Amino acid sequence: MSPATPDPAGKPRTAGRRPGGPDTRGEILAAARESFAGKGFAGTSLRAVAREAGVDAALVHHYFGGKDELFIEALALPIDPRQVAAQILAGPPDELGRRIVTVFLGVWESPDGQQRMKALLRSVVSSEDVARLMREGITKMIIHPVAETLELPDAELRVSLVATHLIGMALSRYLIELEPIASADVQTLINRMAPTIQHYLTAP
């Protein structure tokens, strides 16, 4: 049995999980990044993260709410993927492709978003751990919800093809800076890409 130790008021308290402190949130994030990298999204639990950080699981819920929120903050994503899915799905099906391109470019074109997305994309292409984590997290929070609305037997394949198109465009425009795509205005890109993205999603 752990011995009781006095608190500052002289009363005994039982040793155990420590309460929250100034660095608790950061320590939870550090433990989460390690767990996500080693075990992936599906293999990470809030209880295990709390144990690794040396805190009560209730503190993880207090700071982050749930595993999705912890994932978003651990990877320093510039936008909540669930909000992305909600924006994409809020409108008529025949404009789904245009909404996807518009939302995607909106994230990349913001100064903070572009900086963080560049760092994330570089990590994805250079680290299998990060790539696996992104696959699992984004599949759960974006690909599955969008695919479910299509009601087609190959819906996830279609949405995955959309993802390959968007990632290729991001690499070309923001990392490789391939011209003329790198200097094209956003509206032109939306107009050119939207019909192709729509075709992926709804063509027979």
From TrEMBL:
Domain HTH tetR-type: 22-82
PANTHER family in the record: HTH-TYPE TRANSCRIPTIONAL REGULATOR RUTR, TRANSCRIPTIONAL REGULATORY PROTEIN
Stretch list, region Disordered: 1-25
DNA-binding region: 45-64
InterPro entries registered for this protein in UniProt: Homeodomain-like_sf, HTH-type_TetR-like_transc_reg, HTH_TetR, Tet_transcr_reg_TetR-rel_C_sf, TetR_C_16
Native source organism of the sequence: Kribbella sancticallisti
Highest classification ranks of the organism: Bacteria, Bacillati, Actinomycetota, Actinomycetes, Propionibacteriales
Keywords per UniProt: DNA-binding
Origin: domain of life: Bacteria
Membrane-spanning intervals of the chain: none
Protein name: TetR family transcriptional regulator
